[in-house]
Amino acid sequence: MLSAAFTVFTLLATIAPSWSQQIADPPTLASLYSLTTSTSIPFPTATLSNSDAQSFIVSGWSLSKGKIQQGASNIAFVADPFPNKPAPTSTTNSTGPVLQVTYPAGQFGSETSGLQLYSLWNTSDNSGFQSMLVTYEVAFDSDFNFVKGGKLPGLRGGPDPDGCSGGSAANGSNCFSTRLMWRKEAAGEVYAYIPTPNNMCSNSNFKCNDDGFGTSIDRGSFSFAAGQWNRVSLIVRLNQPLTTANGEVVLYYNNVKALDEQILQYRSSSDITIGGLWLSTFFGGGDSSWAPSSDVHAYFRNFELFGSSAPSNLTGQQVSAASRHTNIVFSTSAWGAAAVALAVAALGSLL
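Structure for Polysaccharide Lyase Family 14 protein, as requested:
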């Protein structure tokens, strides 16, 4: 028995050289990445109808341009639909109203499906954040049809608050965005509008587009579960120097590391810092084949942000010309996350 357990620990040591960083809750991640400033998005103490939900968000969420960008009619604060199904790694279950977002039948894209808003968070001296963690919980209806894919909240930054979405490309000085996406059968990824230098698109962990749309990062490295709460924690560390591709994106799913990419260039201009939470969620995709056939809902709660004015300190390549092309994806991060999960399960069966 002990010999078998030792074998499992040896496997873990092989696939996860830094075990403490493979499983971590959001406060632990904030400490690991020296993100010493934090804030949370306020939620009401009682359920709110659509009109009251709009008023609550506009008055208390520090919105860009003072308004909900799109989908204001698709929201309400409702009772927790899954009070007995917390995220698998949670030690406690939150109570209180949650944000319900409706995705209407037959609709796709940010203009008619879901919700889009930008909640700004500034440093105390207005110097701008250069590293940030956003963490939240998301749940989907038990019969949620993921169809071909859709967007989920993440982070954005830069002087252009409207670009880096919908085919408006990132050029290194206008903006960047890093959202999550679900794909077919609930496969997860980070979906980023960022420059793609140093032949990055030949790396099988990245799936690039030729038409100005975003880059899929480590597609399938985790999968969402419907009918329960899912915890996601997304870390962005901007590249520094500006001519070095040492930016980082990290994603933990239910407190287990799913991906970590460290060769990114978010910016070529110091005008780009991280602006805050981009609550952008909708089906799509650019045509009706992405749309749900009936009204469906996602639910959100426990939005927290942790930040630092320090950028990435990783070693990286000097930036060369950008290269964009579509390629076949094979995610080494997915293999790593799966191996960790299997090892944990094996250990549990032995003890």
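The chain has one domain: 2-350.
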